Amino acid sequence: MRRVAPGRLSSIGAPDDGEDAFESQSAVGRWKGTDVATVTRATFFTRLRTRGLSREQLGYLLVTPALVLVAATILVPMVQTILLSMQTVRLNLPNLPRGFNNFANFQQLLADPVFWSGLSVSALLVLANVVVCISVGMVVALILNESFFGRGVVRAAMLIPWAMPGVVIATLWRFMFNDQYGVVNDIILRLGLVSSYQNILGGPWALPGVMVAMIWRSTPFTTFLILAGLQTIPPELYEAAKIDGASGWKRFWHVTLPMVRSSLMIAVIFRSLDAFREFDILYNLTVGGPGVTTQNLALYTYKTYFAFLNFGYGATLALAMMLISAVVVFFYVRLIGLQLSSRGEG
Amino acid sequence: MTSISGRRFRRRAILGGGLMAAAGALLAACAPAPAASPTTAPKADTGAASAPAAKPAASKEVVTLGFASQYTGGTQLEDDKKLVGKFVAENPNIKVQFVERPAGGAQQNHDWQVTVYSAKDSSLDIASVDTGAQWPAEFAPAGWLEPIDDILPKNKQEKLMPQMIYQATHAGKIYALPWMNDVGVFYVRKDLLEQAGKKTPVTWQEMVETSKAMAKPPDMWGYIPCYRKDEQLTCNLQEYWWSNNADMTDKDGKVTINSPEVVDAIQFAIDLVKTHKITPEGVNNLLLDEGRQIFTEGKAVFHRNWGYAWQRAQSGESKIVGKVEMAKIPKWGPNGTHVTNLGGWSYVVHSASKKKDESKKLISWLGELPQQMEKYLFSGNPPAHMDAYTPESLAKYPPEIRAFAGPYFEVSKTAKSRPRHPQYREMSEIIQNEAQAAILGQKTAKAACDAMAQQLAPFLKDWKP
Q1: Taking the CA of residue B132 as centre, how many other CA atoms within 13 Å lie in the half-sphere pointing to its CB?
Q2: What tens digit of pLDDT does each residue of A185-224 get?
Q3: Interface contact flag, A307 B107, Cβ < 8 Å
Q4: pLDDT tens digits, residue range A16-73?
Q5: Helix, strand, or coil (residue A285)
Q6: With an 8 Å Cβ cutoff, are A287 and B228 in contact?
Q7: Distance CA A203, CA A197 (A)
Q8: What are phi and psi of B54, to 5 degrees?
Q9: CA A306, A312, A317, A319: dihedral to nearest 10 degrees?
Q10: Which residue of A331, B49, B98, B332 could cross-link B244, Cys pair, CB 3.0 to 4.6 Å?
């Protein structure tokens, strides 16, 4: 707590002070010998006019527009959703009584078999996506990290699936999985894995089929995240490891992995949340069919809101999705120990 | 030092204040347009801008109607504008603006209309609704549609397809004026039947026999329906159990979705694929038009589709031009009924419209025979006016349309409406989920029907067809 001489207080917040924000905070307790209460009593605009703004005040002022935007676009809808989820609101039955409905929506949620099947489909999609996208992404990133002829072209080409709209990808894969003339059927027939063309998207293999399409589209994203992390690893570490006689695998395990740990964690979080929210590929590939075997929570929420116009229950589902996402992130942050900045290890 | 830093502070204050003001202005500009017009800026187009010089003594003020066409672009939209332009030319005190709406399928159209109606946006006066999918049953109880009984006296009602009038009626009042008649048709490869010496099947069982004799999967399938998980699946299934004289409820409202007839119908749908193997498994997922492509590629003997498929089969890349015949949907055995699922579209007047009389005048005019025939000729959507199918009217069409319209009308006489329930969409989803589970083999047909009955019970309580 550095005691600042009164004469210097008039330069609170001056850019060339040499004081950083923490130190000047301690000096705010006293201003021209008066205490803080007196300071705040002086009008805001008087001070603006005569003294300019303190560093803190300027900071708050500049942040306010962003805060207002966040509040309007995130907080307000979130609160509205929470309120909606406690009411019975069906848009096409506008004469239903509104008002608190004793958590009937939540009771319905817990007893709704379609919700639980949607949850298990979402969980399976997230699991498959994270495992495959990360492992394949790791391998491809390692390859792209080496320099070889045409690497630039390959990197650009890798981005194409990520850049395509979900509807186009779904249409593409629907043709490829077609049970009369699909390419995938042709390939697996020639490989001898099946004896005749299979009904992939309309049968028990619909969920794996959907996973393939999702993974195909998202692997470039994880690849490039991991690649970015790989490129920060100083080559001297590898050289040192080689000199010490470490094999390729040991180098990977003890040098590469710890260094890309933060990129990996970011990739895992993003991939999990995106896979949990997946909508456009599912909607255009199978519409959640056959039955409800590929209907995840996002698709079910959409249907409840916009096909059934059941806004109250839809809000409950949306709230459930939000809470589940929060739990997932909490799990990653606490239990696995998310580190957003990589401390050099090993 | 004070003076220099003082200037810097004031600069910072101005900067901060300016940023706040800019953010505020940005928010105001980006704020949603006032609820009065959630639709995008309506295109101002009155078609015949050549409305003649104002008739003398035009004491009525000019009103502008907001008209949401069935079409969102292309030549059909232009032709629709021309048609409406004729009305504008005859009625100088009425102008029509074509309201833009998002392009997309029926679901997008539905969602857009629900948004506009919920906002009570009076800029939309007239729209088209899918009567087959029970939009009037959904919109009318919500109070969003204006009853139009006054423009449909008995003699006019009788000229329109009776089943479509039935669909448009809610609580004894009519809410929609039919203009398009869309029914399911049983398409038959008559050349293949002649070769094999067989007749067009009258019952489902006959169809199965004929198909088994003639099918050679995967080059030649017997029958292509559409079992994709949307309304198509429910339409196909309804035709099976309707033809067996059963329905979701009986006429008193008792739930009969798990009656033996319905269970047999679901089992029949499964057997076509699993037991008889005359239907490809992929129909679970194929789009309606992809199934049609299998037929127009010449790879199937029978196909169930809507009226539009005829035109596809007779032109373009179709390999079966001139080889197709239309027939009634088969019935279930000798005691069954020929029934087909009724789709179709109708004009409605928005209840929040401020120009109801003019709107009703316009749709009444559009519902008359000459206008319905004209719309048919430019859009290819068969009219709902029954006089458009009389021999005199048929003679006025070009030959290829005549070849379609006559047989099509015979089929559409067997039309039956889906249940007029406000939450039909949700009920349809339940049927789709359970039926597909049965088709996949996850449950028996009986278990699926019982599950349907249990889940539909809350909707069907106190409801009568």
Answers
A1: 23
A2: 999 999 998 888 888 888 889 999 999 999 999 999 999 9
A3: yes
A4: 444 444 444 444 444 555 555 555 555 665 666 566 778 888 888 999 999 999 999 9
A5: helix
A6: yes
A7: 12
A8: -45, 130
A9: 120
A10: B332
